[in-house]
Amino acid sequence: MTPFTPAKASLDIPTESLAGVQCLLARFARGTAMRVASAMIPTTIRTAVQSSYECDRYNRCSTRMTILIADDALRQRILDHTFPIWNEGLSREAYSRWNEAQLRTEWGRTHLQRIALVDDSGELLATAKRYRFDVRIDERVGWMCGIGAVFTPADRRGRGYASRLIERMLAEARREGALFASLFSEIGTAFYERLGFTTLPLDEVTVGVTRKGGAPAMLVRAGEDRDLVNVAAMHHVRSAGARVALRRSPALVQYAIAKKRLLAGLGPADGRQIEFFVAEEGASAVAYVLLHENANGWTLEEAGDRDPAGARLGAMLQALLAREPHRPAPLIRTWWPRPFTVPPQLELRDRIDARDVLMVCPLADVAMPITADDVFYWRSDYF
Fold first, then answer.
1. Do residues 170 and 253 share a domain?
2. Cα within 13 Å of Cα(278), Cβ side
3. Which one of 17, 57, 130, 277 has the minimum C-beta count within 10 Å?
């Protein structure tokens, strides 16, 4: 994946924003021009376009707003704001370490940015994360712009700053050739629908495992970095029947696992546990599972099996439950992709729409999926 590069300077602003259009007209009426620039940051990653436009409630241009990639100091200011909402039970210091470590992973260095909208004095108006995911939609391959952690400081809300930021991010992604954008909404769908997003449902289910008497004849070991190539290959094969799926590289798999391990390691000692297991034949992993365990049960974050029937995966889960045969089976919840075959040892029940709502917005000439039958997406790729 090529690192982000800046768009060329231009005078356009998102045409979806009426206020932005009115602001541009007002600037030209007063004989001024709109300035757009790009800037360097201290890596090979380049900044998004820095744009200058804003209108007050009476449509007079009063405050110049700049969109940029947050540097170290600005990221810490952003985390000060977001910590009370998204701290995941971490201390403020651990919360910072968790977020910064994600940016330093092999995948994060070239696929993850923290974007900020600031005013002339450098005050934060809105912020979001931007992800660049390799993706396939039908027969087309390209990339998807993921938008996460959208936030506006409390004293800046109600002025359209988050909408402006998202519009600019969508415009930049469209110019850079993204096939579509996506996000997960925690605030319902209405706000993002006004920006052109539609809901793509995912199945959240309970996984029942048929417990087998005696010791299961399945050797399971802890997963290692050398297994990531096979994990990515299993995802590629099993997702082939879906209209939409991530094209997961070993680096993306490593990022997904590292993000969860970091969260578990930085939190309370008795809080979370992440377990990555594989079954192998010869020297190759042929099935795997990533589990998040806590007091409430297990979350099956992702899984795979070279066997189209998924029998190895089912046997792995039987073997893992057999570690404590006298204890009741834990509650196991997951996002189960419908195109992924249910192993014969498993039963899926209590289906609901995933609580974190996946929403998508086309940025190219592509037909967007509309049902859970169309998409292959695991919980571990939530952003």
1. no
2. 20
3. 57
Dig out the tokens for 340 from the structure. 């992924």
Residues 77-113: tens digit of each pLDDT: 999 999 999 999 999 999 999 999 999 999 999 999 9
Q: What is the Cα 381 distance to its own chain's centre?
A: 6
Q: Is the dihedral of CA 52, 54, 59, 63 positive or negative?
A: negative
The count of structural domains within the chain is: 2
Residue 179 shares a structural domain with residue 255: no
Both tokens of 146, joined, read 């993921």
Q: Band of the pLDDT at 340, cuts 50, 70, 90?
A: very high
171, 199, 227: which is the final residue of a domain?
199
Q: Of 210, 156, 201, nearest to 356 (Cα)?
A: 201
Alpha carbon dihedral 236, 238, 241, 247, in 10-degree steps, equals -20
For residue 229, the surrounding DSSP H or E stretch is helix 228-238
Phi-psi region at 310: left, alpha or beta (left = phi > 0; alpha = psi -120 to 50): left
**Domain assignment present for 373:** no
Same domain, 155 and 40: yes
**pLDDT tens string 272-323:** 999 999 999 988 999 999 999 999 999 999 999 999 999 999 999 999 999 8
The more confidently predicted of residues 24 and 91 is 91
Residues 129, 127: Cα–Cα separation, whole Å: 7
For 88: left if phi > 0, alpha if psi spans -120 to 50, otherwise beta; the answer is left
DSSP bridge pairs for 300 = 291, 334
